[in-house]
Structures are given as structure tokens and as C-alpha cells.
Amino acid sequence: MASAHSFLTVFTQVLLVLEGIANGLNFEYYAVSCPVAELIVKNAVITALQEDPTLAAGLLRMHFHDCFIEGCDGSVLIDSTKDNMAEKNSPANLSLRGFEIIDSAKDLLEKQCPGVVSCADILAMAARDAIFFAGGPVYDIPKGRKDGRRSKIEDTIRLPPPMSNASELVAIFTKNGFTAQEMVALSGAHTLGVARCSSFKSRLSNDGNLDKRFAGVLRKTCGAGDNAEQELDSTRNFFDNNYYNALRMNSGVLFSDQTLFWSPITRGIVNGYAENEAMFFYDFQRAMIKLGVLDVKVGSQGEVRKNCRFIN
Questions:
Q1: Which residues contact 189 (CB under 8 A, 6 or more apart)?
Q2: Are 206 and 243 in contact (CB under 8 A)?
């Protein structure tokens, strides 16, 4: 049994490597051009998270929001100008945090390897390192993404709304090449961080299935206003499977989270991850590697920004 499991693990890793190569990326992309790239990013992330561990959730969410809009191209990092309202200013992105960590890593990399390491790669590496810092799985990612030249607020309509049901979520993720299992695994990123009242307050009047006890908790949070924050699970700064256990207790904060347990399409997957954290970690890292190569830009399709906030 152990040998079969080992074979499956190796086979999966080979598939993920081939997937990265097929997208024009490479695990050793900076081995010659900037061998200190990964270390610089990791140190920037760890330094920031030691001071404020809540930023781990911000980096992870930022990477997802980046990849799901224009592909993993760093477009979420771009600032708005008088002529363009960027993704960053969308209501869906106003709660994103950690931009200064990316800026810090970029500044250090430009001093060591000017014009080499893309902002898209920095964000992908930072999200991975944040997961590890918070106690999540360790994994490598292929590099070589180029930075996009477009960032439009209207493109954020592609992000899954917090009131989506399971069938809608499956459809959205399927459109982007993910299975229902991978969608539920990626949803486990909500084991980190908080949600603002504005993203769940409609449940208090429209969700007839909302647990009465938990409704009281959410109502109390929203009493402090739309920007009041509710932990997504009981261990907001630790990467674990408590998120899935919360769903089984009808304590999912967002409707799009709780629906994963209510729906027969995804309930079995939620139960599996709630009962087996190792399986969640394994599936999550595989899904994250796949997310990280979503619609990437390589070669002349993009650029390496000098400043992650502005197109060259």
C-alpha cells in the first residue's frame, strides 16, 4: 500500500512539473539569472508575518484574486491612475492586504537582479511562503510568469461572489479548468483570515438555513458596521482544516462557504477534509500549483515591471 501511495505521489508531481513546463514555466527559472530570488521573497514574507501574522491571509487571497481575473500576471498589484480604474479598487478587492510586502521584495530584487524577477512570480512565491509560515503544506512552484499590462476594475466581475451557491461555484471553477474537488480544496484557503460584514450581512435576512445561534454571532459583528470583521474559522492565523469542521457545524461565515456542506455535490468532499487534514493539505497544494499556472503570460506576452504598482 505504501509503495502504491509513493508511486501516486511521484506520478502526481511529474504531472504538475509537466503542466508547468507546458505553460512555459520552470521550477529552476531563476537558478542562473537570480539565484537569490526565492530567498529574498521568503525573507520579506517571514519578516512581515512575524510582525503581523494576519497578513498571511492577505497574500494568499491576493494571489487567488490575481489569477482568477487576468491569469497570474500581477494585475491586482497595479495602482489606479486618473485614466484607469484598476482591479485593486474593486469592492471585491478593497479588503486585500500585503501589497507593501510585495513592494519590499521587489525593491530588494531590483537591487540584486534588476529587471529579472516579475511581480507575478513574487506574488506567487509570497503566497506559497505565507501558507508555510501559517503551518500549511510545503511545496514548490514553477516560475517564469511575466507581468500583465492590463488592470481594469470591470474585470473583477470574474471573481466568485460571496453569495454563490455550490452549483454556481462548480460552474465558475469548471470554466477555469478546475474540478469540484479542486474548488473545495482551494476554498480551504478561508482557514486563514476574516470576512467583512458587508460580504455576509445579507444572510441575516435572506438565508433561511442560517443557524440561529451563529446568526446571533454574525449579527453582533455587524452591529459595529459594514467593515466589522468576523473570523472565517476559530484559528484565523493558522492553516489547518478547522474551516471544514466549521462548515459541518453550520458556522461558515460566507454563504459561498456554507453551501459547500449543504450541497450534496460537495458535502462528501467537505467531510473528507474535515476528517483528514493530511488529505486536505495534499489536495490543496496540488490545486495551488495548478492555480498558479492559470493563463500565465510568458515571453513577449508580458513584461517584468520595475515597480509592481505601475506598468513600465
A1: 57, 60, 61, 64, 284
A2: no
pLDDT the model gives residue 205: 87
Out of 5, 63, 65, 190, the active site residue is 65
Cα-trace Rg, the chain: 19
Q: Global pTM?
A: 0.91
Per-residue DSSP letter, 26: B
Whether 65 is a known active-site residue: answer: yes
CA 215 to chain centre: 27
For CA atoms 132, 17, 298, 287, the dihedral sign is negative
User: What is the pLDDT, as a whole number, of residue 94?
Assistant: 84
C-alpha separations of 145 from 67, 121, 171, 253, 272 in Å: 11, 6, 26, 34, 34
What is the reported pLDDT for 11? 45
pLDDT value at position 3?
A: 44
At position 126, the amino acid (one-letter code) is A
Over the chain, what is the mean pLDDT? 92
